[in-house]
Amino acid sequence: MPTIPFHAGIDASGRVRVGLDASGHDVRVALLPGWRTAPGPGGLGRAVVDALDDAVVARTTAWARAIPAPRLSAPRLSTLRLSAPQERLLRQAHQELAEFRQRLAELRAEPVTVEVAGVRVTVRHGRVARVRITGPATSDAALASALAAALRAALATIAAQPVTALAGSPALRFVLGPPPFTL
After folding, report:
1. Are 8 and 55 in contact (CB under 8 A)?
2. 98-152 pLDDT, tens per residue?
């Protein structure tokens, strides 16, 4: 049975596995013996989405456990001494935050489809919504590789959406600092 490093997810049939690295950028897919008959309704595409969702939960859980508990004695923004330009910048960034959230919601609401190596992946609402095999694969290994490549492209598309939404928010970009920032 192939092992997948990273944070692994598996579909309900136990025959399709997806692994995500800690950054969420690298993806591995394993099609285990019996995968052709096991996935059930929705077929392989649905099984891949389910396994990816499971891997995302595993990665997010591990990430959350690694974050230290917040300090309760952190200073409140109202107690900081800011210069007039710093205060204007923060007020502008706060105003731009609502605009950014609206732009991001609009971007994520629109389905985006990427196709790589005979695999079509649709993303919507910040997640992989659908996977469809559109081309022939010569072997299980080639199909698993094509699935992984298409999922990587889809995750890159999802990761680019906040950066795109942030483009019209100079004060907010300044406050957040240069990419990579965590949203």
Report:
1. yes
2. 898 899 899 889 999 999 989 999 999 988 999 998 887 678 888 999 999 999 9
- pTM for the complete prediction? 0.77
pLDDT at residue 183 above 70? Answer: no
For residue 165, what are its two tokens?
Answer: 């939404």
**Cα–Cα dist 37/171, whole Å:** 53
Question: Nearest 5 degrees, angle CA 21-CA 109-CA 165?
Answer: 70
Spatial CB neighbours of 169, under 8 Å, sequence gap ≥ 6: 93, 96, 97, 99, 100
Partnered with residue 115 across adjacent β-strands are: 120
φ and ψ at 106, to 5 degrees?
Answer: -65, -45
What is the CA angle 62-107-18, rounded to 5?
35
For 100, the token pair is: 């950014």
In SS3 terms, the chain reads as CCCCCCEEEECCCCCEEEEECCCCCCEEEEECCCCCCCCCCCHHHHHHHHHHHHHHHHHHHHHHHHCCCCCCCCCCHHHCCCCHHHHHHHHHHHHHHHHHHHHHHHHHHCCEEEEECCEEEEEECCEEEEEEECCCCCCHHHHHHHHHHHHHHHHHHHHHHHHHHHCCCHHHHHHHCCCCCCC
